[in-house]
Amino acid sequence: MNRKPRAYLKDRTGEVIEARLLEEMTVEAVAQANASWRSLVEEHRKRLIAQGAPRAEWPQHHHWDWEKKAERYGGLLSYRFVGVEHAGTVQGMMMVNLDAERCRVPQQRGKPLVYVEYLASAPWNSPLFMAEPLFTGVGTMLVFAAIQLSLEQGYGGRIGLHSLPQAETFYQCCGMTELGIDADYYDLCYFEMTAKQAELFLS
Amino acid sequence: MTSTKRTMTLNLTDAEMNVLEELSRQKDLSKTAVLRQALRLYQLVDARLSAGGKLYIEDPGKKEKAELMVL
Lengths: 203, 71
Description:
The complex is a heterodimer. Chain A is of the alpha+beta class. Chain A has helices at residues 27-51, 66-73, 138-152, 168-173, 195-202, and strands at residues 8-10, 16-18, 20-22, 79-86, 89-97, 114-121, 159-163, 177-182, 188-193.
C-alpha cells in the first residue's frame, strides 16, 4: 500500500483547491511559517483578554512556538516537520516522532508507530481563531501525511497522539481508537490508529 | 513522502545478523527499517549526550535509575 496523499483543501465556497505537501520542512521554513501565523495568534489573544473571555475558551495551543520546536528538534532524524502549503503560504504544520512511542491498542501493542507530537492548522484555517476558516481539510491532510510516513517506515500506517480536549472530536472523526485520559501525559486523551483504521482512512 | 535513497552494502557477522533478524521479527519490521530506526536513535542519543544530557534506564519495579554509557 503506497498511495499519494490527497493534496487538496476546500475554500469557503466549498470548492476543492490544490495544495502541496511539504514533506520535510527545514528549520528556516518552519520559522517562516511560524512568523506568518504569530501576529494573528497574538491579535486573537489580545482580543480574548479585552473581552474577558475565560481561559477555557482560548485555543489550547495558542502558546505553541513552532520556531523553538524546529530549533530544538530539526536536524534529528527521529523528528519530521510536515506542512501543507497553498499559494505560497503554510496552511498547517505537524511535528512527528518516528521512534518515541509504541502501540497501546491490544491487537498491535508494542509495535512501532508514528507519534504525532504537534499538529495545527494556520490560525486563519482554525475555527478556534476564525468564525469562518479560510480553508478546511488541513488537519485531515496532515493525518493523511502521518499515515503515509508510517507506511514508509514499515509501521503499517499505525499512528498515535495525545489530543488537546478541543481537538478530540476531530480525531474521533478520523476513526482513531480512543484509549482515554493518560494520567502520565498531562491528563490528555490518547488516540491510536490501527493498520486497519489507517487503511479505511486512506480509502 | 519519498526522499532520495542511496544503496550500500553492509557486512555483518553471523551474530550481528542473528540479532538483526530477531529484532526484525520481534518488531515486525524489515531489516532495513530496524537499521534506519537504530541510526535515528543513535543520532538522537548522541545529540543529547553531546549537549550535556545523561541517559538513564529506569527499573519500573524498583524505580531505580542506572546511567547508560554510550560511546
